[in-house]
Specification:
By secondary structure, this protein is mainly beta. 3% of the residues lie in helices and 46% in strands. The protein is globular, with a radius of gyration of 15 Å.
Length: 142
């Protein structure tokens, strides 16, 4: 069962059908490897708290802090480390689901699925972007 709280879908108990897993391996500040990305520019992760920034111009758009709803095993996903973190973002016009999973060589994969709820007739969007961990002292490029 999902419940919408302050624009974030929250998993309650076992109703989500996912086992909650430790996502601390993904903790940190991540930037998109594609400086011309049109989806997300940056993602900060601390436990199950995910803070994405859209690739807006002239400055990144702050999506706010979202709460992760759970993780699935790698057998279900085909991901390297056997873990993923999922967060939901609700706006007046869309429901966005971000799925974050570790990739080889210390990278992070973020799949974004956007379903438009505003009756505009727009087709759903799906993107997959790769991020690298920001090293201490590195300047973020937006």
């Amino acid at each position: 069962m999902f419940r919408r709280l302050a624009g974030v879908a929250v998993c309650l108990g076992f109703a989500c059908g996912t086992a909650l897993a430790d996502s601390s391996a993904m903790n940190g500040d991540w930037r998109n490897v594609n400086p011309k990305a049109q989806g997300l520019a940056r993602v900060e992760i601390a436990g199950r708290a995910v803070h994405p920034y859209g690739a807006c111009k002239p400055a990144a758009c702050d999506w706010g802090v979202l709460s992760g709803v759970g993780a699935l095993s790698g057998a279900d996903l085909g991901v390297v480390s056997g873990m993923r973190l999922k967060v939901d973002r609700w706006t007046d016009s869309s429901h966005v689901v971000l799925t974050l999973s570790p990739e080889p060589e210390g990278r992070l994969r973020v799949q974004t699925l956007t379903h438009f709820t505003d009756k505009s007739g727009r087709a759903d969007l799906s993107t997959t972007e790769i991020f690298e961990r920001v090293q201490t002292g590195d300047a973020l490029r937006f």
